[in-house]
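Subject: for your reference before the review

Hello V.,

The reviewers asked for a structural picture of the protein, and I figured it would be easier to keep everything in one thread rather than splitting it across files. Below is the amino acid sequence we used in the manuscript, unchanged from the supplementary table.
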Amino acid sequence: MTTEIYLDGNATTAVLPAAIDAAIDAMGRRFGNPSSTHATGLQAKAMLDQARACAARLLGVGAGRLMFNSGATEGIQTSVLSALVAVRERRARGEAVGDLLVYGATEHKAVPESLAHWNRLLGLNLTLHKLPVDGDGAHDLAHLRHVAGSAALICTMAANNETGVVSDLAGIEAVIRETGTAAYWLVDCVQALGKLSLELAATRIDYAPFSGHKLYAPKGVGMLYVRAGAPFTPLVMGGGQESGQRSGTENMAGIAALGVVLAALERGDTFRTHDELWGFRARLADSLRAALPGVVFNNPFDKALPTTLNFSVPGLSSRELMDVFDAAQVRVSAGSACSSAKAAPSYVLDAMGVPLWRSAGAIRMSFGPLADEATISAACARIERCGAALRAACLIPSERAAVPHDGLLQLGVEGACCWLVLDAASSSCVVIDPLPEMTARIASYVRCQNYRVLAVAGTSAGAGRQPLIEALGGHYVAGPVDQYGWPAAARALTLENGAAATAIDVGAQVLAGMSAGADASRAYLLGTVDGGRLPASAVRFAFSAGPLDEATRAAASAQTLLCPTRDDHNQFCASMTQHSAAILTAEAQRAPADMQLDSAELDEFLRAHPEALLIDVREPYEFAATAAPGPGGRAARSVPLSQIAGQAAEWLRGEQRPLVFFCRSGNRSMKATQCLRRLGHQQSYSLSGGLALAA
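And here is what came back from the structure prediction:
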């Protein structure tokens, strides 16, 4: 499993080998400027004209304009500018024009952003109006009929980029004609190229932008169709290229490559048939159903492109699903590539009215019409591997109990965090300051690992612990508790400073609870009892919501690690010499240059330090889904970032071996490195760029 399987075709595709050859030829042998009149220029112009003629036939542009440009975003800008300039001119002549800019609620963000931009710059003060969609993502034609008479411009799309839902363009056109609206009509055809039959001149569509990189051409090249008679204002003026419609020397390498793709579409001998693509999607869907219990598909297959699946899995975030697929080298996305880095629900699915857990946890799996049997078969096998990894990590239901884990587990939501103290030998655990958002996750984890929960304790009195206790059912064995959730049966214990505390046994260790100051908060100390006392030197961890008072600090040692219940800056833990409430500033968090190693530096470093440990800080399900976890296939140890605090105490003891942390992108490994450096382990490093950039 060393070759990636790319299933994010709606974001971009690989470039067709023949298109690469054409681009190289355009840059090498036929490098002339098509505006030049000498033989070299004429050769380039012939190639340009040939590509345009092929596109015109394929798209049925008739007498309409067809210009090459940099892609759909430029095409959308040009279309909106052209329409709104015409609206302004008509209004200046006293003609009746609409005051609404209508756009589909599921449009790519490039459309409403462009509408708002040019509406403001042109001083039109028109109102942007979302056209609703139904639960299947289809435009509300009744609503369109209601507002069409007030519309100056109507923007829809041929097929949605997140769900693949195909728009009822014929129905939209019927409404436009029936209402007699003078509104211009823009249709985003980016996902339609090569997947839907288009005869543009036979429609009422005024503007249709395309992007080459969605169908095996390079990025940075696209096309714009403008209906004959539709108003047009150039976005770029200059030397008059593209018949004065789009100035600037043409991207001949990109156009040559796009021309080859268009010619392949016209011949019909390169891409898969719709029936083959339907079959591929059905196989992927069956594999997802088998591997991921409860999976829900967010797009209606009978109304969507056969190359797109959009799904959610109960209890799993899109980030977790993306991470496990990426570990298995299956490339998917959480929606539009333009917005997938943003931690927000899908606005497309929100507009369709799906529940929040589905829109926030959605994954898009898409492939192009060049997909083949071998790729789909390999993808199905890796989907099963991902499902097995998630079951082993207790993130989805499993028929077998997982092996209990030792140590500490930190779970966080927006800076707040809770802690699980885990003991494998006794299959027992304690939960400290549970977060409501983590109730289902903790309960599932406990049931899967078959832990006995000895306490659900809080650092403050009366915190909302009851939902978790109810979710745990018979796994919760604490019995009567006080206002902090601390068991009434906890035994008395004397601390190093002579103070009295109460404690419960968590395997061979004890967790002691004590007052943490005048604010009536509670702190917890985890360590090993010696002769009925808990020596300060034996206290490994202290859990607290805020600064420890002097009495509590005296019960611990300089080696004790402080585990906060608020961790806004990903400190994970702090040493006793670093105040538990001290928050590092952004400047203090900045990584020194010597914290990072690139792939070449890693090779040299490991030769110089053969004793160094490679630490994979990805989550267990990512580690399990990866065939060769370490960079370059090297052996690596799995210590998830959520468990880094518990392991840090071990790394800080005795002789400190060099540690090299890595993850998928380098972000999580840098956090681990900063944590260890701050705790005093100066031979800690992060692999820059992570596995994504590793040799």
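For the response letter, the relevant points are probably these. The longest helix spans residues 39-59. The chain has four domains: 43-262, 273-392, 407-587, 591-693.

Happy to draft the paragraph if you're swamped.

O.
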